[in-house]
Amino acid sequence: MTKTITRFSLAAILALGLSGQAFAHAHLNSATPADKSTIKASPSELDLTFSEGLNLKFSGIKVTGPDKAVVKLGDPMLMQNDTVLMVPVSGTLGAGTYTVEWHALSADGHKTNGSYTFTVKP
After folding, report:
1. Structural domain count, the chain
2. Among candidate residues 84, 114, 81, 104, the one with its CA nearest the CA of residue 25
3. Cα gap 55→38, rounded to integer Å
4. Quick one: which of 36, 48, 72, 109 has the most CB atoms within 10 Å?
5. pTM higher than 0.90, yes or no?
6. Whole-angstrom Cα distance, residue 21 to residue 109?
């Protein structure tokens, strides 16, 4: 009976360990400017912090302005152990609400995406 309990315990530990890997995805933890925030000046960059490292080649953002025009951005970079996606803003953002659509491929191969908004109000 002890062998059965030990085998069951080992199987349960392995199952829990593998399920943790199966659910590993790069989730957006925070952003600067923050979701639903109002800022007084145009940001020079957008910083998106994820729960795990990203693959830069398959991660990025698109920003659209109040007129639905796509905002010109610079080349993205990864920072802080590849968990922060930093994207320069090429020009000055005018007043209005902006939508950031992001997509990320975590270092372990899982895809996630989402969006958030922020408002520039000088």
Report:
1. 1
2. 104
3. 30
4. 48
5. no
6. 11
CATH of the domain at 87: 2.60.40.1220
10 part of a folded domain: no
Tell me, what DSSP letter sits at residue 65? -
Is 80 exceeded by the pLDDT of residue 81? yes
Q: Is residue 16 part of a domain?
A: no
The predicted model gives 52-76 an average pLDDT of: 97
Band of residue 7 on the pLDDT scale cut at 50, 70, 90:
low
- Residue 122, pLDDT score: 85
Name the residue with tokens 């659910």: 23
Domain coverage including residue 98: 25-120
Cβ atoms of 71 and 98 closer than 8 Å: yes
Q: Phi and psi for 19 in degrees, rounded to 5?
A: -70, -30
Nearest to 43 by CA among 25, 26, 31: 31
